[in-house]
Amino acid sequence: MPVCEVSTNQFCDTEESDMSDRGIMPVDWEDRLDTNRMLRERLQRAKDALAATDVDVLFVFRPEDARYLTGYRHHLGPAYIEGNAVVVLPKGGEPVLWTMDYEHCRKRMSWMSKDQIMPRANFREKIGMRRWVEQVESLVGSLAGKTVGVDIWSPLLEGELRDALPRTSFVDGYHGVMMRAKEVKTEDEKDCLRIANVMTEAAFDAALRFMRPGVRECEVLAVAWQTMTALGSEWTQCQNIVASGPYTAPYRRFTSDRIIRNGDLVIIDIGACFNGYYGDLTRVYVCGNVKPTQAQREVHQKVYTALFDAADVTKPGATNADVFAAADPYVLDNLGHGAGTNPWEPPFFSPASKDAPVTLKEGMVFNLEPYHGTEEVGGVRLENDHIITADGVEIYTTYPFDERLVIDVHDRDVTTGRTRETVPIVGMG
C-alpha cells in the first residue's frame, strides 16, 4: 500500500529560521511552514525508531500519535476514547489508519491511499476488538510469533488482544518507539510550536487587558479562549487556568467563578493549539493599577530567577536533572515537560530526574514552570518555552512579565523594560 508522494520544496532552507514571525497561510513569495515535509519527516522518524527495535508491528491508540504518523486531525474532547483514532505501522511498511471520519479522510488526505484508511475500530465492544485484530492480520499478515508494540494499555484491551493473538508478544511501544521518534523535533514541528505560542501570547494579552477588579476568573478565561479560537486554535493545552488571590497558594489548577479583587496576584496559564502542536504560557500579574507588596515582589523574584537560572544550564549534553537542580527548591511537583503533538511528553523535569537523568539533545522542546508561594502572600508560577540549540537554548516565549513584580532583571530576560511600569496594561482593554 504505497503512500502518495508529496512534493518537496528544494529551495527551502529552514536552518536557523523562525517561520513563526511570518504569516501562517501558504504563499508563493516566501518560505513558510511546509506541512508536506513535516508529514514525511515525522513518519520517517517513526519508521527509523521502529526499525531500531525488535518490534515487528506498532499499534498506536493515542490520538495525538495517530496524527503524528498520518496527519489525521481528530476531534478532541475531555476524555480519551479507545478506537477514535487507531494506527498500525508494520516494520518496513506504511501506516494504516482506522477512524470514524474515514470518508472525509479518504477524500482529503491525498498523501495516503484509500486502502490505508479504514472505518472506525470498534473498541467499545469485545467482539469489535476481535474483529479489528482479524482485519489487521488480513492487511499486515499473521502476527503469530511476532512482537507487537502497544502505546496504551488497559485490562480489557490486554485481555482481548492476548485472547485473539495467543502466540504474539506484546511490549511497550510508547517509550520504546514513539517517544524515540518524537524526542527531537523537525524544523517544521518547531515552527508549529512557535506559532502556537504566538497565538497563546495574543490570547494572554487580550485576557490581561480585560482583567480588572470585579470581574470573575471565568470571564478572563473566556476572553483568552475566544481569542485563541478566533486565531485558529484547534483546542487548548489544558482546560486553562486562571487562579487568583487565595487560590494561588495552595495553587489550584483550574478556573472558577471567583471575583478577582484589587491587588490580587493572578496566575494565568493557557495554551493554544496550532496544527496539532501546543503552546504553553504562564505569567502572574497584579490585578488593578496598584503597587504590589514587597512580599509579593520577593515571591515573584524567586520564581523569576529560578526560571532563567534553569535556562542558563540548558544545552546539549546537560541533563534534565541539571535543569531541575538549577530551579530547586522553587518547584511545585515538577519543573516542566516536553511539548509536541502531546502537550506533555518527554523530557520531564521532576525530583526523580536525578535518579535516572536524561541527556538533553539539540532539537528537544520543553516548557519550564517553577513555582513558589505561601498562603499569607500568595503564589507565583511562571513559564517559558524552550528549544535546545546547537550551543544552548532558544527561549521562544516573548511575552513580558509584570514589571511591578520584577526586582532584579535577569541577563536572559529580553522582555522586561518594554512595558509601562507606572501604568500597567492590566485592564486597559
Automatic annotation (TrEMBL):
Task: Please provide the record's keywords in A-Z order.
Answer: Aminopeptidase, Hydrolase, Protease
**InterPro entries the UniProt entry points to:** Creatin/AminoP/Spt16_N, Creatinase/aminopeptidase-like, Creatinase_N, Pept_M24, Pept_M24_MAP, Peptidase_M24B
CDD domains to which the protein is assigned, alphabetical: APP_MetAP
Q: What is the lineage of its organism?
A: Bacteria, Bacillati, Actinomycetota, Actinomycetes, Jiangellales
Molecular function as annotated in GO: aminopeptidase activity; metalloexopeptidase activity
What superkingdom heads the lineage? Bacteria
Pfam families found in the cross-reference section: Creatinase_N, Peptidase_M24
Instruction: State what protein this is by name.
Output: Aminopeptidase P family protein
